[in-house]
């Protein structure tokens, strides 16, 4: 599930609203077994959030993603016995799968 950093009451309201929408979408999808599920609710929520973000928020999101990527890569480099020798480009490719 998503985690949010709340900067205002609007953020809290938005999260509550998105969670309720996701729950309703999931409920509707389960009640229609013959209909194919086109997209996962989390992807829909991500698109809604992205569409309502300001340029500053998008830039901050990008910076946070890059920081997380660097931290993941650093962890993998320290624990090569678990993860093997991986390059930053390999980690970036894996990271793209979760976007």
TrEMBL record:
Signal peptide extent: none
One of the Pfam families matching this protein, by short name: MXRA7_helical
Domain Matrix-remodeling-associated protein 7 helical: 44-98
PANTHER family: MATRIX-REMODELING-ASSOCIATED PROTEIN 7, TRANSMEMBRANE ANCHOR PROTEIN 1
Protein name: Matrix-remodeling-associated protein 7 helical domain-containing protein
Native species: Nephila pilipes
């Amino acid at each position: 599930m998503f985690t949010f950093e709340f900067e205002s009451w609007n953020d809290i309201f938005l999260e509550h609203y998105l969670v309720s929408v996701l729950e309703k979408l999931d409920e509707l999808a389960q009640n229609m077994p013959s209909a194919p599920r086109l997209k996962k609710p989390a992807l829909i929520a991500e698109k809604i959030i992205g569409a309502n973000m300001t340029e500053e928020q998008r830039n901050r999101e990008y910076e946070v993603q890059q920081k997380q990527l660097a931290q993941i890569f650093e962890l993998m480099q320290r624990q090569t016995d678990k993860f093997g020798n991986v390059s930053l480009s390999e980690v970036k490719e894996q990271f793209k799968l979760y976007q």
